[in-house]
Design goal:
- This protein is mainly α.
- Helices cover 65% and strands 4% of the residues.
- It has a two-stranded antiparallel sheet with strand order 1-2.
- Helix 2 (35-58) packs antiparallel against helix 5.
- It is elongated, with a radius of gyration of 19 Å.
- The protein binds protoporphyrin IX containing FE (HEM).
- Protoporphyrin IX containing FE (HEM) is lined by residues 12, 15-16, 19-20, 23, 52, 92, 96, 100, 103-104, 107, 151, 154-155, 158-159, 162, 173-174, 177.
């Protein structure tokens, strides 16, 4: 493991570390019923998720879904070579790839339900709540709370998985997600390149969608 290789670009790292911050902030602002801050936090999360999905198609190599979403055989083969295998992935391994998809789906559900959620008095509601009846909005609000518990469970599982790699397999994943660099065997090829035009495109489209949704799609 003698070459240090850049495996995560800056957008992926920013996306990643803003997730725990914003999830914590969203939870807190919901608890103290600071709904305007809860909405701002939700819109930022929505921006991040839309951005991450677009980046999954046009981002740098390790961000692309096509490069880490693998079939059942690849996952089984990967599990079979465990636990002796040395760290060798310049990106997500086949199992981690599916956990990324799972986490993104759960985060998307969290944001989507928030958009349609209606509060008990019908006042503190999501921007798209006008499109559903009061009762449907209330049911969606309950789903929104339920989904947060699911996200907590997913986060705990995520942290246990990372700890497993860090402690038992001595794979330095957390440092890699902070600095972008990972120590890998000689000859590993991540092929990381940050394309600023695509980055600008992804950011503008994501902001545009969040803006449209925040107006309640009434314009
Ligand atoms: C402070 C706690 C956290 C730590 C230490 C942590 C650590 C990591 C690490 C090391 C990776 C890279 C895994 C790999 O190499 O395959 C990763 C990926 C990821 N984590 Fe976390 N994580 C934390 C919190 C969270 C939270 C709260 C979420 C949201 C539910 C989350 C969602 C993700 C996602 C979606 C990825 C994939 C990154 C991408 O390709 O976009 N993480 N995390």
């Amino acid at each position: 493991l003698n070459t240090k290789i850049k495996i995560w670009d800056l957008p992926i790292r920013l996306f990643h570390w803003l997730l725990p911050v914003l999830l914590g902030f969203s939870w807190y602002t919901a608890e103290i019923r600071a709904i305007d801050w809860h909405l701002r936090s939700g819109y930022t999360l929505m921006f991040l998720i839309i951005f991450r999905i677009i980046w999954g198609f046009c981002g740098s190599e390790t961000a692309r879904f096509a490069n880490f979403v693998r079939g059942a055989k690849a996952v089984i083969d990967y599990l079979r070579i465990q636990p002796d295998a040395k760290p060798s992935f310049a990106g997500h391994n086949p199992l981690a790839g599916w956990s990324v998809i799972f986490m993104l789906v759960a985060l998307t559900l969290q944001v989507l339900t928030g958009l349609f959620a209606v509060d008990v008095d019908g006042i503190d509601s999501g921007p798209l709540s006008l499109w559903v009846s009061f009762d449907t909005g209330r049911t969606i609000a309950e789903l929104h709370e339920w989904c947060f518990n699911l996200l907590l469970l997913i986060t705990v599982t995520h942290l246990l998985a990372i700890a497993w790699y860090e402690v038992w397999k001595k794979e330095r994943l957390v440092i890699a997600m902070i600095s972008g660099f990972k120590r890998l065997p000689e000859g590993s090829k991540p092929g990381l390149s940050l394309n600023l035009r695509r980055l600008t495109f992804a950011v503008i489209i994501s902001i545009g969608i969040v803006y449209l949704v925040s107006t309640g799609l009434q314009i």
